[in-house]
Amino acid sequence: MMTDRALPPSAKTAPVLQVRDLVTEFTTDEGRLRAVDGVSFDLHAGQTLAVVGESGSGKSVTSLSVMGLLPARIGRVAGGSIKLDGKDLVGISERRMQRVRGNDIGMIFQEPMTSLTPVYTVGDQIAEAILTHRDISRRAARARAVELLEQVGIPEPKLRARAYPHQLSGGMRQRVMIAIALACDPRVLIADEPTTGLDVTIQAQILELLRRLQAETGMAILFITHDLGVVAEIADRVLVMYAGQMVEEAPVEALFAQPRMPYTIGLLGSTPRPGASALAAGAAPRLRAIPGNIPSPRALPQGCRFHPRCTHMREGLCTTAAPPLDSAAPGHQVRCARWRDVATQEART
Amino acid sequence: MSAPLLSVRDLRTHFPVRGATPFSRKKIVRAVDGLGFDLQRGQILSLVGESGSGKTTAGRSILRLIEPTSGQVEFDGTDLLALNAAELRATRRRMQIIFQDPFASLNPRMSVGRIIAEGMKLHGIGEGTQDRRDRVAALLERVGLSREHMTRYPHEFSGGQRQRIGIARALAVEPDFILADEPVSALDVSIQAQVLNLLQDLRADLGLTMVFIGHDLSVVEYLSDRVAVMYLGRIMEIADARDLYARPTHPYTEALLSAAPVPVPGARGQRVLLKGETPSPVAPPSGCVFRTRCPIAGPDCAATVPELREIGPGHRVACIKRG
After folding, report:
1. Of B146, B174, B202, which residue constitutes the final position of a domain?
2. Which residues 24-83 of B have a C-beta within 8 angstroms of A?
3. Is B200 on the interface with A (CB under 8 A)?
């Protein structure tokens, strides 16, 4: 079943954020390194797109590219476009980009402690974020800061506004980061592994909070994660990345019910399911792990980048030419030369 | 049932912490506060809990890598807490540990061959260098690496491969028992599955007994025979894995299981959302330590510390409202 929110791009209004053929490169001692190679997606208001991948997949570099936060001099967007409401952000000045961040795009990261200043109270830091982007009095900004703390579910917000970051727990600090990100009612929230490192009961609270805030504000969320459980819970659409490329994109239900790219199939097989026990059947049923290791971006395989680890690999077809993205169904794209055969074989097992 | 290989009774590990000023009163962190369980040979018991639950301290206290304050740890009939240093060293051959961080737990200056052979030499396993080298080669193959890796150094390996080296090192001294302290938490999902499969094979082939410390509930469900859910240094519920996941009885277990995201869209059912966060172990709540976050707590929960009561075969719960 496809929910309305997961409809393919063309079916609804213009996307808030539209990324086309994004290429991001880093200059290293050993030459140029292509960390993201041709990522495209549309993000619509009120929708959550999850970008999922393992280390080195390029998921975080994709989000840094959109935010214009690539490390200066080393990293650069080498191709493609990143359009916010139709206006390209690639190549605009840092001054203008600063206005976009905070006003139109809010951000939250994995480690809230490193994003907060230890020497100011959280209330001051939220007020500062508001004053940077809005022409209001300091008094009004402080009042708004307390409101925001309340909105993100911090008990006794007036009192907590006077606390310093170290006096708060990890979960509370992430709520403060969300309050800062929301300070200017952004239309896009970029959340890069925002619950990684939090305990599961706290993670559940933060995911619940993001869902509620999205329902209230209609903001679009770009959610970067490695956790398929979190994806299943929060995403409308999913983009799977491997070795710098997008290898599959689909509505969340389709991705979990009919994964087409062998890598996605492998990732799902690697994740223990509820009710799965190695002992249940007596003999140990093994997880369907993906063999081999994640390739280094310095030595990417020829042809399909996944072929050395793929159980469906065909010599020649998969080892020489890089497969293009193919449409497996409306709104469902897959980068695999053999996806039809794979689908038939998987259906049999 | 035969005698358990490992039997832990009322284990407590308390740490003194300094107050804010030199004159303020000394405080005590009750990291582990009355832990008890039996573990049969060939079984895997998992300790699960969130940060501050004491699961890591509990594991290390069992091996006396951290000295417990009181209690009893009986390993194959020997009380570990009564052993002197030399006796403990000898017993440790039979009890090995696999660490979470495969980057920090291998000496970067030693070749993989030396890392694995070191324990054998120390405990006098193998006859001479050649025999030990053959054993190292066999171990490397056992964990999915190859003989050629012997002369390489840890930095040449990926995280998953280093974890395999750590497992080979633990197996080198032919232990009966392994403490696996979050061994897959730092690994990517596709690599994590490889290591879980390996642990499963080793248990089946070598009959290893294991205490597995973890926070990922689906990993724990997949791997364990028995599961103990910890909160603030205590066991809230302990049962056979299948029983615990099918019939979670303690309100904390319920909340923990319902909070864990599952890789099935739309599967999120009725969620027990816990309010607030784990209290500081310096000042745990009186009575039941979970009561400040418990959705069903009543006034009597503050009065008494609930004991672990048997509610079914091998299923024990510390809650006066349930069971």
Report:
1. B174
2. 50-51
3. yes
For residues B260 and B266, give the distance between their C-alpha atoms in angstroms, rounded to a whole number.
Answer: 14
- Would residue B287 count as lying in a domain? no
Verify that B8 and B58 share a domain, yes or no: yes
B258: tokens are 């319902």
Q: Are residues A17 and A70 in the same domain?
A: yes
Q: Are residues B85 and B14 in the same domain?
A: yes
Q: Is residue B251 part of a domain?
A: yes
Judge: B50–A232 Cβ closer than 8 Å, yes or no. Answer: no
Same domain, B71 and B124: no
> Average model confidence (pLDDT) for chain A?
90
Mean pLDDT for the stretch of residues B235-256: 95
Of A115-129, A264-278, B15-29, give the lowest mean pLDDT range: B15-29
Same domain as B156, residue B10: no
Q: Is B222 on the interface with A (CB under 8 A)?
A: yes
Exposure string of B270-292, with b = 16+ CB inside 10 Å and e = fewer, is eebebeebbbebeebbebbbbbb
Q: Note whether A174 and A239 are same-domain residues.
A: no
CB atoms within 10 A of CB B154: 20
pLDDT at A221: 98
Q: Which domain holds residue B136?
A: 103-174
Instruction: Please judge whether B262 and A274 are an interchain contact, meaning their C-beta atoms are less than 8 angstroms apart.
Output: yes
Has residue B300 been placed in a domain?
no
Assigned domain for A349 exists: no
Closest CA to B29 of B290, B280, B296: B280
Cα–Cα distance measured from residue B269 to residue A40, given in angstroms and rounded to the nearest whole number: 33
* Residue A219 forms part of a structural domain: yes
- Interface touch B193/A232, C-beta < 8 Å: no
Tell me the chain A residues in contact with residue B223 when contact means C-beta distances shorter than 8 Å.
278
- Structural domain of residue A81, as residue ranges? 13-104+187-273
Rounded Cα distance between B98 and B63, Å, is 12
- Say whether both B185 and B130 belong to one domain: no
Residue A1's pLDDT band, with cuts at 50, 70 and 90, is very low
- Tell me which chain B residues have a C-beta less than 8 angstroms from the C-beta of A229: 218, 260-263
- Which residues make Cβ contacts (< 8 Å) with residue A134, sequence separation at least 6? A141, A184
**A225 and A265 assigned to the same domain:** yes
Same domain, A68 and A133: no
DSSP string, A17-47: EEEEEEEEEEEETTEEEEEEEEEEEEE-TT-
| Burial class, A217, CB count within 10 angstroms (exposed 0-12 / middle 13-18 / buried 19+) | middle
Task: Report ipTM for this prediction.
Answer: 0.87
| pLDDT value at B1 more than 70 | no
What torsion do the CA atoms of A21, A256, A199, B302 make, to the nearest 10 degrees?
150
Q: What is the pLDDT of residues B38-63, one digit of tens each?
A: 999 999 999 999 988 999 999 999 99
Interchain CB contact of B140 with A (< 8 Å): no
B159: in domain: yes
Kindly tell me the sign of the dihedral angle through the C-alpha atoms of A320, A322, A328, A332: positive
Q: What share of chain A is helix, strand, coil (3-state, %, to 5)?
A: 35, 20, 40
Locate B133 and state its tokens.
Answer: 């080298």
Tell which of B174, B198, B219 closes a domain: B174
Q: How far apart are CA A194 and CA A251, in angstroms?
A: 22
Quick one: B45 and B122 in the same domain?
A: no
Q: Report the b/e string of A112-134 with b at 16+ CB within 10 A.
A: beebbeeeebbbbbbbbbbbebe
Which of 274-293 (B) contact A at CB < 8 A?
A: 274, 276-278
Cα–Cα dist A4/B217, whole Å:
32
Domain count, chain B: 2
